Amino acid sequence: xxxxxxxxxxxALVIGxxxxxxxxxxxxxxxxxxxxxxxxxxxxxxxxxKLGTVLSANDLTTVQIAGGVPAGAILVKDMSxxxxxxxxxxxxxxxxxxxxxLAAIGSGGGLxxxxxxxxxxxxxxxxxxVNVSGxxxxxxxxxxxxxxxxxxSTNSDQGxxxxxxxxxxxxxxxxxxxxxxxxxxxxxxQVVNLLVTPEDAERLSLATNFxxxxxxxxxxxxxxxxxxxxxxxxxxxxxNTAPPKPPQRATAPKSVEPPPFSIExxxxxxxxxxxxxxxxxxx
Length: 283
Prior knowledge:
The chain is α+β, with helices and mostly antiparallel strands.
């Protein structure tokens, strides 16, 4: 056989083998992409569930999740772990139920189940104007302002003083119901429960003797600002007449003893060093 013809046949055979291998790899990758992924059954909300509700079996359903399971999700075989536990944030139909959205086992439901350990729920009386026309709803962040005449105030020209008492406080509930009306608008409320520390709860209790106002803030803005108190006279003069903080007493700097100096004394073959105090130290 002609050597040239044999070389062409071998080259064609090699090229055909390479092309067949590439086509096989492409088809295999496409088939792997459409292979069904194993699904896992988890517990989900059957209907919309409001904050504070104690879950029952009728409130729960199951959904199949393909791929990774959300962290904290309750598997179908563990559905009994969700029954009888309070909901600490609103759930929506079909939403997987996560452990962090439920109160601890045995703590029940209602507002008390939403209070984290070490915190307190403190009720503050407000009205439709003070609470920003009813737009204070659970989950929002607010600042608490108080206004009034400070006890024992000696400056009669100062008038009433307004002060930011607390900042970046979470609203637990507004009024007796913790939900919006059918139109989706917040309901007018008279009582707002705030999530505070025990120390702040004591301060709020004392502040009820004065006028309390809630100021809405961006939920992503958790910066605590240093805000000076404002008084009535400053509204017209532009100069804040609130009593300033007492100045700190300045401490005198400590005197520093000047370092001593030394003189090298050479006596024949002997060498010695004599130290003397600095003349500045005697002034």
